[in-house]
């Protein structure tokens, strides 16, 4: 699991389809930014098959 600043989130790298199969779950996280009415980060969880 990693927190990635929304400004730094690279969708091309995040959803790269090369390599081994994996599942990416993306949600909001980090500090709530009242002025932007949004969270500071995205929380990214990567899961891989066991076999």
Description:
The mean pLDDT is 93. With 51 residues, the chain is mainly β. The radius of gyration is 13 Å and the shape is elongated. The chain has one helix spanning 11-14, and strands spanning 2-5, 23-33, 38-47. It has a three-stranded antiparallel beta sheet with strand order 1-3-2, with no helix packed on it. The protein is 8% helix and 49% strand. The longest helix is centred in the first third of the chain and has 4 residues, at 11-14.
The CA-CA distance between the termini, in Å, is 20 Å
How many whole angstroms does the radius of gyration measure? 13 Å
Give me the oligomer status: single chain
User: Residue-averaged pLDDT, rounded?
Assistant: 93
Strand content: over 45%
**Largest sheet descriptor:** 3 strands, antiparallel
Low-pLDDT residue intervals, each spanning 5 or more residues = none
Coarse structural class: mainly beta
Instruction: Count up the helices.
Output: 1
Q: H/E order of the elements?
A: EHEE
Number of strands: 3
Order of strands across the main sheet: 1-3-2
Query: What is the overall shape?
Result: elongated
Report the helical percentage: under 10%
């Amino acid at each position: 699991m990693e927190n990635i600043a929304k400004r730094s989130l690279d969708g091309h790298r995040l959803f790269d389809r090369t390599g081994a199969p994996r599942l990416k779950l993306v949600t909001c996280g980090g500090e709530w930014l009242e002025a932007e009415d949004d969270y500071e980060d995205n929380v990214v969880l990567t899961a891989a098959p066991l076999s």
